# Entry
Amino acid sequence: MELKELLEISVLLNYYKNLLSDKQKDYLIDYLEGDLSLSEIAKNHTVSRQAVYDNIKRGMKTLYDYEKNIGFYKKECEIEKELENLKKDLTVENIDKILEKMF
# Structure
């Protein structure tokens, strides 16, 4: 898994982890935040390595599906970009434009 994808999944996990199954959430947290291998996670949860792998893959797909449908991370990125632009040209009009987009 590339670093960019790893970071994106970590962010999506923060947004949507409570919408995952308990196994998917636990395995993804162990894998991403605990930096455990699939074998270590399997041993800790007394399941097969394949079960861990399958749950992580399904969990990642679910996170991407939630982001596609809900879009919290995309919205945060857009707001961050707008705020960076606002730093360059701070005017009341630009603040109003950003606020209109948010609501």
Remarks:
- The helical segments are 3-16, 22-33, 38-45, 49-70, 72-88, 92-102.
